[in-house]
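for the writeup, i need someone to sanity check this before i put it in the appendix. the sequnce is what the collaborator sent (i think, or maybe the updated version? ugh). structure was predicted straight from it, no edits. if anything looks off just tell me and ill rerun, i have time this weekend
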Amino acid sequence: MAQLNTTLDTNLLKDLFSLEGRDQAYAKLMESILNQVLEHQAMEPTGAGLYERSEKRQAYRNGYRGRTLKTRVGPLK
């Protein structure tokens, strides 16, 4: 199983622990984690990151387009 280290915005963490705006913070947290996981999954088969030139590159990426995922914490982009 692959290991993925995620980074979170400090303001997002503050919002998670405050009473105001907690619901929106959960949606932003899920959106951030989901986008980082999807980016990592797209990077694995190519052997390089987005716009990265590498000697180990095995394939090319066509790019992506924005989508909205409806969840119980709210819509995620």
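The chain has a mean pLDDT of 81. DSSP finds two helices and two strands in the chain.
thx in advance!!
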